[in-house]
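Re-run with default settings, no changes from the original entry. Doing this only to confirm the output is reproducible before filing.
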Amino acid sequence: MKQPTARQDKASKTGKPIGRPARLSRDKILDTAMALLREGGGQELSIRQLAQQLGTVPGNLYTYFPNKEALLDALAAHALGTIEIRADATLPWDDQLAGWLTAFRATLKQRPELMLLMGLAGTAPSTLAVIGRLASLMESAGLGRAQAVLHAQGLLWTVMSYTLFELQASEPKVVKQLQQAGEHEKNGEVFPHLAVDDLEPLWQATLKRNLDGIRLQVSASACT
């Protein structure tokens, strides 16, 4: 009986088909990396894992991206370029801002991998473009460029951190723990007022608090 070759034996153990590795391309790498991020719920991407999924070795990926940072920048541009959030230009600046941030939150809930990409590629052109878009709304209300950019960055981070908390707090196990905590007498004065099952009121309060602070600064700028 003919014995399997070392290559055949390795293929049988890894479950990968025998033959020439799939042809690599920039788009194929980006699409596969994005799929891995989605499957992992936005967890950090491993170059080794990506190479394995593509049926190649990590070194081959560096032909297309010089380092992991370049890959993440490209992923951020690729992903953020697909986000279509349009503000109604007929609305006041603060309503436009509130609408954009709420729509962005909904997008992040559907695509949590975007939070990792924007966090790791915070200075990528695609991320800076989003910050610039938000800043321009506040500049139109009278804020200076420096203040507007700072607030825009803070708002972006607020939405991402809130959405991350929201996704984790919505897990059945976490909800159950919170509900059990409410059964303790010592928590009776606080727990009834917490957002547990419905987190929408908490989002609206968070949004209002941030926008109220910016409105105050806009009013102060108008008086100087």
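The longest helix spans residues 145-169. The chain is about 65% helix and 0% strand.
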